[in-house]
Amino acid sequence: MAIDCIKTMPSITTPQHHPKDQDQCKDDGKSFVFDAQVLRHQTNIPQQFVWPDHEKPNTNAPELQVPLVDLGDFLSGNPVAAVEASRLVGEACKKHGFFLVVNHGVDKTLIAHAHNYVDTFFKLPLSEKQKAQRKIGESCGYASSFTGRFSSKLPWKETLSFRYKAEESSSKHIEEYFHNRMGEDFAEFGTVYQDYCEAMSTLSLGIMELLGMSLGVSREHFREFFNENDSIMRLNYYPPCQKPDLTLGTGPHCDPTSLTILHQDQVGGLQVFVDNEWRSINPNFDAFVVNIGDTFMALSNGIYRSCLHRAVVNSQTPRKSLAFFLCPKNDKMVTPPHELVDTCNPRIYPDFTWPMLLEFTQKHYRADMKTLEVFTNWLHQRSLS
């Protein structure tokens, strides 16, 4: 059956399938403020951060055995290494969408600098961090938990997100962002994260070649699709919590983006839901954790999975991570290559653009394991009206 292409965002009503316990906060100017420097020392955490019993964390989750993909020989053009790497990636993406990459070519000093500046930024007074305050409905800026957006099940974390555009005309975009939002003293911040995002974009395109090979389409197909990506970089900071058994650093969700490249520090906390249980992915400073997002699941016509994952916190040590979310250029239509669609494998998801799904998750739906399903149903309903 042909699926109509919807290019613009119709007016939205909240989907009927939206969970009732994830209510949006009313914009009444009285939202609770998450000040990590104060709350990290309190023995009783605010009720907004207490999660339901069935979602409370398991800090002793068994380790998830994810494939370790060596990119060294693949990136140097070794055909045998390419076949083996694509096989490992394909197996992981059909099961849970997570794998690790080593010998990735990203400079270790650059990674270390990027982590150091996470510490520097999040140790600033709240008033300084709020110079980059994220506005309701936007995907970029500083966020102290989701206190301005949701009224319950809040994550115990702070984030700073900013946009990365791969176009040559945007080569100083991140440097300008830090200068404009935080001032001249943050020029070095901008330089480091500009370099880091460029490295992540390059790595992402290499991984896209692997994904194309593993799916049986041309090696260049997805690389070309994401060549001029318009992506999001996020710095995550999880302060210590005196009641880590009651809350979560990040609630269970599937990434709505295409591909996530995560670098963890040495403090564990990432968990993935596989075979009906939560399992941990232990830190490895030499590796990046890579996972498939909803947008690439749609690009693969559902062959590859976007998997539920979360982050837990602890009472002793801050945890930080660097997350690069690969996203297509805004005008790119998310549609699977013809090789992945036939009478035995009909289209599962309608065509859409990334900004449509982004707006859906930022303004109308709290990302979870059903995001793509609910978004798809909403698009179908709108196309019939």
TrEMBL record:
<dbReference type="GO" id="GO:0046872">
    <property type="term" value="F:metal ion binding"/>
</dbReference>
<comment type="similarity">
    <text>Belongs to the iron/ascorbate-dependent oxidoreductase family. GA20OX subfamily.</text>
</comment>
<keyword id="KW-0560">Oxidoreductase</keyword>
<dbReference type="GO" id="GO:0009686">
    <property type="term" value="P:gibberellin biosynthetic process"/>
</dbReference>
<comment type="pathway">
    <text>Plant hormone biosynthesis; gibberellin biosynthesis.</text>
</comment>
<dbReference type="InterPro" id="IPR026992">
    <property type="entry name" value="DIOX_N"/>
</dbReference>
<dbReference type="GO" id="GO:0045544">
    <property type="term" value="F:gibberellin 20-oxidase activity"/>
</dbReference>
<dbReference type="Pfam" id="PF14226">
    <property type="entry name" value="DIOX_N"/>
</dbReference>
<dbReference type="InterPro" id="IPR050231">
    <property type="entry name" value="Iron_ascorbate_oxido_reductase"/>
</dbReference>
<dbReference type="Pfam" id="PF03171">
    <property type="entry name" value="2OG-FeII_Oxy"/>
</dbReference>
<dbReference type="InterPro" id="IPR044861">
    <property type="entry name" value="IPNS-like_FE2OG_OXY"/>
</dbReference>
<comment type="pathway">
    <text>Hormone biosynthesis.</text>
</comment>
<protein>
    <submittedName>
        <fullName>Gibberellin 20-oxidase</fullName>
    </submittedName>
</protein>
<dbReference type="InterPro" id="IPR005123">
    <property type="entry name" value="Oxoglu/Fe-dep_dioxygenase_dom"/>
</dbReference>
<dbReference type="InterPro" id="IPR027443">
    <property type="entry name" value="IPNS-like_sf"/>
</dbReference>
<feature type="domain" description="Fe2OG dioxygenase">
    <location>
        <begin position="228"/>
        <end position="328"/>
    </location>
</feature>
<keyword id="KW-0479">Metal-binding</keyword>
<keyword id="KW-0408">Iron</keyword>
